[in-house]
C-alpha cells in the first residue's frame, strides 16, 4: 500500500509540471487549449529519440520542453494570426501532432529500458545515506517495505518547486501581468496598446513547453514513449487544477500554483486508491478521471446551493421571530 502511494506522489509531482502548463492557458489566459494531448507526447517522443541517439538525458529533457514550446507557438499563431477559434486551433494542432509524434517515434512505442535516463543518472550519484535515514524513519512507523530510493521524489519535488517559483515570478513581471490581464479583459489590455497577439502566443507556448517537459520526464520514468500516452491528458490537467483550487483556494498567484501542484498529487493518489478496487481495471483510468472532474466541478455548486438554502431558512426564521415579537 505504501509503495503504491509513494509511486503516486512521485508521478504526481512530475504531472504537476503539466498541470501548471494547463493552469497557464485555462485559468490565466482563459484559452481552452487542447494542444496538451499532443504536446505531452511530443515531449516524450523527442526526449526518447534524443536519448536513444546518444544525447545526454538532461539535454534531451530540455529539447522536449523546446519542442512543446514550438507546438504551442503554432497553436497561438493559428488562433491570433490565422483567426482560428481557440478551441479549434488546439484541436487542429493536437490532430497534426499525432502524425508528427508518430514520425518522431518511427513506431507506436519506443522503449527506453536499455538506455540511461535522467533518473538512472540521478540514482547513480544519489547517496544511500539519505535513503537509509528516511527508510529508518519509516521503520519506526512499522512500514517494512520502504521504497528503493527517495532520489526521484526529492529531486523532482525541488525541480517542480523551482518551476512554480519561476512561474510565480514571471506572472508578476510586466509581461506576466499583461498576460493575466488578457485572461481577465482582452479589450481593456488592447486599448492600452499592448500586443495581445504576441502575449497570447507566448502564454500558449510556455504552457505547452511545461506540458512537453513533463511528458519527457514521464517517458523516462516509465521507460517508454507511446504515441497514445497523451490521450485525456488535458482532462488530467484540468482535474489537478480544479481539485487544487477547491481544496486550497486561489487568493493569490503563489497560492494558486501551489494548489495546482497539490491537486496533481492528490489526483494521482485518488486514482491509485480507486484502482485498488477489484472491479476496476487499468483501462478504467480515463473513466475515473472523468468522474473525478465531474465531482470536482459539481460539488462546489451543490455546497453553495446548500449554503444559500440554509441562509434563506435562517433569514425566514429570523423574520418570523421578529413578526412574533412585534405581534
UniProtKB/TrEMBL annotation:
The chain crosses the membrane at residues 12-29, 58-78, 85-105, 150-171, 199-221, 227-249, 256-275, 287-303. The keyword Transmembrane helix applies. It holds the Pfam family BPD_transp_2. It is a multi-pass membrane protein. GO terms for molecular function: transmembrane transporter activity. InterPro entries: ABC_transp_permease. GO terms for cellular component: plasma membrane. It is found in: Cell membrane. Its main location: membrane. It comes from the Bacteria. The keyword Nucleus does not apply. This is ABC transporter permease. It comes from Oceanobacillus indicireducens.
